[in-house]
Design brief:
two-stranded antiparallel ribbon, about 75% helix, about 425 residues, 2 strands, disordered C terminus, disordered N terminus, mainly alpha, Na+/H+ antiporter like fold
C-alpha cells in the first residue's frame, strides 16, 4: 500500500489496470488478424477478464475504474460534436431530424408491440423498456469509423443521427417513466410535467455545454503549444462532465455541445481535435476492455425468450425505421440500406437509464436491468462488426484518404 493525501492507493488495483491494458492490446491485435474491428477485440478480451471466465476484474474493480469509463465516454461525446458543423447540417438538417425520428419510433414501436402485445407484459414494463431501446451507443461505431478512416454519405449521416437519437431517447424515457408511474399509481404527474421534465434535462445539458464550449473557444487560442492545448481541452471536458453530474443533467449531451460550439466558432478547430486524438487511444482501449470485463454471460440463462425477442425487435425497429426515414427524404441508397446496421450498438446511456429505473420503478428494475445488460452484451460485441459491414458495403472504408486526395465529399440528402 502507498499512503497519499490521507488516502490509500491499492497497488493491486493498479497492477490489474496494467493487465487490462496489455490484454486489451492483445485483443485488438488478434481482432485485426481476423479482419475484425479493434473494438470487438477489446470487448472480447475484457470478457475473458470478467466474471464469466478468469474473474480477474471484480465488481469492486469495475467501480474503481468507473471514472476512466466516464471520462472516455465524455471524450467520445466531445469528438462527436465535431460532426455538427452548422454549414453541413443546413444541407442535411431536416433530413437528419426525420431519419432519426423514424428510427427511434421504429425501435420503440416494435419493442413495445413485442413486449406488450405478444409477450403480454404489463404496460409500465413495456413502455419503459421500449423507450430504452431508442438510444444508440456512439463509442463503438465512432471507433470503427476511425480505425478504417471511413468517410462518405453513410458515415456523415451516422454520427449526427446517433447524437440526436440520444436526445430523443432521453425525452422518450422521461415520458415513459412518467406514464409508468401514473399507471402503477406511483405518482401523480400532470401532462405538462410529463413532457417538461425530460425537456429540462435536455435543454439544461445543451446550455451547460454551450457555456463551457464558448469558454473553450475563448481560451484555446491562447494555448502556447500542443501540450497546453491538450491540458485545457481535458480540463474543460472533465469540468463539463462533473457539473452535468452535479446538476443531474446528461454529461453526454453537454460534451457533444462543447465539441459543437468549438467546431463552429473556432477558426481552426481541427487543431484541438487532433490534439485530443493523440491522447485518447489508450483511454478508449481501457474503456472498451473494461466494458467487456463488466459483462456477465450468466445473464444469458436469466433473460429467457423475452430477452432474445428484445434483441431482435430492437434491431428490426432500428433498421426498418432508418430505412423508412432515409427513403422519405430521398437519401442515397447506401444510407437507406446500411444506416440501420450501424445503429445497433447499445451501451452507456441505456445502462445509465437502468439505474434510474431502479430508483423510480423498483418493481420492474430486476427484469429490465437483466434484459438491458443482455442487450448490451450482445450489441456491444457484435455491433462493431455490423458497423464495419455497413461502411464496407457502402464503399466508405478509406474514404478519408480519398477525400484528402480528391477534395471534400459531397452529400446530398
Amino acid at each position: 500500500m502507498c499512503i497519499f493525501d490521507g488516502g490509500m492507493i491499492n497497488l493491486d488495483t493498479l497492477f490489474k489496470l496494467g493487465i487490462v491494458i496489455v490484454v486489451g492490446l492483445l485483443g485488438g491485435k488478434l481482432a485485426r488478424k481476423f479482419k475484425l474491428p479493434n473494438v470487438t477485440g477489446y470487448l472480447l478480451a475484457g470478457l475473458l477478464l470478467g466474471p464469466s471466465f478468469f474473474k480477474l476484474i471484480s465488481d469492486q474493480d469495475t467501480q474503481a475504474f468507473s471514472i476512466i469509463s466516464e471520462f472516455a465516454l465524455a471524450c467520445i461525446a466531445f469528438s462527436i460534436g465535431n460532426e455538427f458543423v452548422i454549414k453541413e447540417l443546413r444541407k442535411l438538417g431536416k433530413s437528419i431530424v426525420i431519419i432519426t425520428f423514424a428510427e427511434v419510433i421504429g425501435a420503440i414501436g416494435i419493442v413495445f408491440f413485442v413486449t406488450y402485445v405478444i409477450f403480454k407484459q404489463p404496460f409500465a414494463f413495456s413502455i419503459v423498456i421500449a423507450s430504452m431501446s431508442a438510444a444508440t451507443a456512439p463509442a463503438a461505431t465512432l471507433m470503427v469509423m476511425r480505425q478504417y478512416r471511413a468517410r462518405g454519405p453513410l458515415t456523415q449521416t451516422i454520427l449526427p443521427v446517433v447524437a440526436l437519437d440520444d436526445v430523443y431517447g432521453i425525452i422518450a424515457f422521461g415520458i415513459a417513466i412518467s406514464l409508468a408511474k401514473i399507471t402503477t399509481g406511483g405518482a401523480n404527474y400532470s401532462i405538462l410535467q410529463m413532457f417538461t421534465q425530460p425537456l429540462v434535462e435536455v435543454v439544461g445539458s445543451l446550455v451547460l455545454g454551450a457555456i463551457m464550449g464558448f469558454l473553450l473557444v475563448l481560451t484555446a487560442g491562447k494555448a502556447s503549444d500542443k501540450e497546453e492545448l491538450l491540458s485545457l481541452v481535458l480540463a474543460v471536458i472533465a469540468a463539463t462532465t462533473g457539473m452535468a453530474n452535479w446538476l443531474n443533467l446528461s454529461s453526454l449531451l453537454a460534451c457533444i455541445m462543447v465539441g459543437t460550439m468549438l467546431v463552429n466558432l473556432k477558426p481552426n478547430p481541427s487543431r484541438v481535435f487532433l490534439a485530443l486524438n493523440d491522447f485518447t487511444p489508450p483511454v478508449y482501449l481501457l474503456f472498451f476492455t473494461l466494458a467487456g470485463a463488466s459483462l456477465d454471460l450468466s445473464i444469458l440463462f436469466a433473460v429467457g425468450l423475452l430477452g432474445i425477442a428484445y434483441i431482435f425487435a430492437r434491431a428490426a425497429g432500428k433498421m426498418l425505421g432508418a430505412w423508412v426515414g432515409a427513403k422519405s427524404v430521398n437519401a442515397p441508397d447506401t444510407v437507406r440500406k446500411y444506416l440501420g446496421l450501424a445503429l445497433l450498438p447499445q451501451g452507456g446511456i441505456s445502462i445509465g437509464l437502468s439505474v434510474l429505473v431502479r430508483q423510480q420503478l423498483p418493481e420492474y428494475a430486476v427484469a429490465i436491468t437483466t434484459i438491458i445488460m443482455f442487450s448490451v452484451l450482445v450489441y456491444e460485441t457484435t455491433g462493431p462488426i455490423f458497423a464495419k459491414i455497413a461502411i464496407d458495403q457502402a464503399g466508405e472504408i478509406g474514404g478519408m484518404d480519398r477525400a484528402e486526395n480528391q477534395g471534400p465529399v459531397q452529400v446530398s440528402i
